[in-house]
Specification:
The chain is mainly α. The chain has a two-stranded antiparallel sheet. It folds into 2 domains: 2-82; 101-174, no CATH class. It has helices at 2-55, 58-61, 91-122, 125-139, 143-174; strands spanning 75-77, 80-82. β1 and β2 (80-82) form a beta hairpin.
């Protein structure tokens, strides 16, 4: 009887050791992405420090983007060498990003909610499940792939077949 308890105890101690070692390995592996994120942030800040010194916070609120004169000797400002007459402002870039994101949301939200309601409420269960399966597959494809497809397939198709038709017929329809 004592031998049975000793075997069970030895087995449970071995199991606990394996569990703790796996827990330690998992903990270290979980810290790798955090360390990579911190390291990336530090490197990004250190490399951007000259640009931050040169532009300051004005970079976020100014709208002029002039690379300067590359044909004369560079000028030094706040310890940063740059082309003469250079000034940089990212306000139009920031506003453009916000506008395009807002436009995408304005288009996508009603379509996606309407499609979800139709799939869940109106379609028969079998068709709904089939469409749901296809949507789950499409959700797994990175959005960059859809953009590449649009650029390589949809864009040329629209330029060749749709836009010429629209440009010929729109003035007559609109009345210009």
């Amino acid at each position: 009887m004592n031998q049975s308890i000793a075997v069970q105890r030895k087995h449970s101690v071995r199991t606990v050791r394996k569990f703790l070692s796996m827990k330690g390995i998992s903990g270290v592996m979980a810290l790798i992405p955090v360390a990579a994120l911190i390291l990336t942030t530090i490197i990004l800040f250190v490399e951007a420090l000259p640009a931050i010194k040169f532009n300051g916070l004005g970079f976020l609120i100014h709208s002029q983007w002039r690379p300067g004169n590359f044909y004369v000797d560079p000028v030094t400002t706040s310890g940063v060498s740059h082309p003469a007459g250079a000034s940089y402002g990212a306000l139009p870039l920031i506003v453009g990003t916000i506008e395009s994101s807002a436009l995408a949301l304005i288009i996508a939200i009603p379509i996606s909610i309407g499609a979800a309601l139709v799939i869940v409420e109106k379609l028969p269960n079998r068709i709904s499940q089939t469409i749901g399966l296809f949507l789950e597959i499409l959700a797994g494809i990175p959005s960059v792939i859809f953009g590449l497809w649009g650029s390589l397939v949809l864009g040329p198709f629209l330029a060749r077949y749709i836009f010429p038709f629209v440009s010929r017929t729109a003035p007559n329809v609109i009345g210009f």
